[in-house]
Structure prediction request, 458 residues.
Amino acid sequence: MSDMTARFADVVGSDHLLTGDAIPEDYSHDEELALSPVAPAYVAKPATAEEVAELLKAASESGVPVTARGSGCGLSGAARPIEGGLVIAFERMNKVIEVDTTNQVAIVQPGVTLTELDSTTDEFGLRYMVYPGELSSSVGGNVGTNAGGMRAVKYGVARHNVLGLQAVLPTGEIIRTGGRIAKVSTGYDLTQLIVGSEGTLALATEVIVKLHPHLDHSATVLAPFADLDQVMTAVPAVLASGLAPYILEYIDNVTMAAIVHTQNLELGIPDQVRDSCAAYLVVALENRTSVRLDEDVERTGELLAELGAADAYVLEGGSARRLIEAREKAFWTAKAIGADDIIDTVVPRSAMPKFLDTAKGLAAAAGGAVAGCGHAGDGNVHLAILLKDTDARKQLMTDIFALAMELGGAISGEHGLGRAKTSYYLKLEDPAKVALLRRIKHSFDPAGILNPGVVFGE
Prediction:
């Protein structure tokens, strides 16, 4: 312990290395609900890629497990450390290095939060459009989990918005992948391999992100439906209409009631409509001009009425913003109503009605319930699992994940497997595919120090 303390302190300085009881409790977990916190032995706060390289080289040589940490707001336990391990916290590597308006990219360090990045790029009329619902999340965390969010229906997930990386391998080598370029067909795409790898292959120390022009005019349409199937039928119709919403969300009535209560929202929906609807569709639109936006809003209302909506309410200004903010905080709402776990399964849009109906039936048969919302535009379903019995809950989640995979989907759309969902993945995934991933992992990390337990189990 003392030898490693001295070695890590030589790299980052004793002021930027925490050990033992000096490590705050916050470093022992992320926001995953079911896992117990684990205290690491060391927390190092590097300032440069070279310091990260030296930390990883030392850890590899001594077999010390390493967990990377950005803002710690992940939902699958990927930022929960290993006992006796090292946490590399990127809070000092928090600079926006450059905003390149010609190529419409920004070069940022991994500890930059989305709030910090937005405030910088807004000065140039540009914006990074990955929006996972927690603006304190870091760009490095976005890279690690392939973060998505509500804007993914129009702008894609992190994988579509990360163009290049500077990354450190656990052997201490520093590499660069991709660049300020929109496409590449030269060798294997290491950028996309590292994005979404949850800190198991390499640690990003610089990220080149794509920026988009900020559109000044936006509006949100809220449509209640009497039946959830109607909502899911409406989704492809809205997308096929050419309206190009940048947010297309469904919220079931249980979750909406919880959101309205916990966030003290007033949406102007009459009681009789609210009491008779099963779910809501949220359609957010944007445009360069107010005239074109008004035309799109009018057409959206007409289309939703044709598709069976009880009504369509145009939310403007503060009410629209507060609803979107409340939807972003759905995880905290789920915690407030006593959720025992959270899943973010993804299925093809066409399979959403069957998936949701079957999942609710599975939950009821197990003596529990599911409630939630999701990114209807891309099939990403966020469900709060309400079932106290641990064994019954694990079986229910296995059944729901198996259902999603049977329908052509996957266990996680954006939260990642972390330590919380890996066991389900190993049980349900093709063993040949897992074996191939293990070989890739070994090529990057021969000592096996990067986030052991994530993706491949303990």
